[in-house]
# Entry
Amino acid sequence: MTVYRKWYCSCSGKPLELEYQSVPVDDGEAGEPACRRCGATPSSDPRKTVSFEDIENWDD
Ligand SMILES: [Zn+2]
# Structure
């Protein structure tokens, strides 16, 4: 069983799924998803609009 975490930003009044940026990351980390509307990320969330949902995948 694998758990996927989906991130959302509610800056527009309804949840908008955060998108992983396509820019390569030099330090080997996978990077962070960011809101394409306001730019909030899970670690940079000044307005506390970012939330997440864990999706359980039982296929494996
Ligand atoms: Zn946002």
Observations:
- The radius of gyration is 13 Å.
- The longest strand covers residues 2-9.
- Residues 2-57 form one domain.
